[in-house]
Automatic annotation (TrEMBL):
The gene is rimI. One of its GO terms (cellular component) is ribosome. It catalyses: N-terminal L-alanyl-[ribosomal protein bS18] + acetyl-CoA = N-terminal N(alpha)-acetyl-L-alanyl-[ribosomal protein bS18] + CoA + H(+). This is [Ribosomal protein bS18]-alanine N-acetyltransferase. Pfam families: Acetyltransf_1 (PF00583). It comes from Pontibacterium sinense.
Amino acid sequence: MADTFADVELRRLQPEHLAEWLLIEKATFPDPWSEPQLAGFLEKTRYQCFGLFQLNRLLAFCVFTTVLDEAELLQIAVTPAEQGRRLANQLFLLAAEKLEAENIHRILLEVRVSNTPAVQLYKRLGFSEDGVRKGYYPTTAGREDALLMSFSF
Ligand SMILES: CC(C)(COP(=O)(O)OP(=O)(O)OC[C@H]1O[C@@H](n2cnc3c(N)ncnc32)[C@H](O)[C@@H]1OP(=O)(O)O)[C@@H](O)C(=O)NCCC(=O)NCCS
């Protein structure tokens, strides 16, 4: 499987991308953020929102919140038809380059232990497992643990 795609590019998300972003958001998360929430991320400087585009089509996005030299990865998602092609890997590495250029030295995240594609992605990227937050996420069957992971530059 190819690990990089030459015909895709990273861009910062803008208000004109909201409709496409919302479509991916709704298709990939059971409890998606609303359009006003997405618009709010674009307005506040502590959030950094990136999209991976092929021509002018948004294929994937990620959202970070930053404090001093740390960032937290809040969401990363790939449009369903393009999942399984390592696009999230490429998106994360390109976005991390931008964050590093802004003096971010560590990225943290929380992920559901059952989210195998995401956990695999983060492990392949070199995230380390820092701990478990018991019963952090609600599920239809009760509660689910969060895996705490971090990535240092
Ligand atoms: C998590 C996500 C961003 C990964 O993006 P991607 O570009 O499809 O990632 P990859 O192609 O690198 O696949 C990730 C890994 O999951 C595996 N995988 C893909 N689909 C899978 C599935 N349905 N079940 C189990 N594993 C799967 C891949 O084989 C790969 O593992 P590998 O590195 O061992 O080969 C994408 O699956 C997604 O958008 N999920 C919905 C949103 C989400 O849960 N985001 C993460 C939390 S914010």
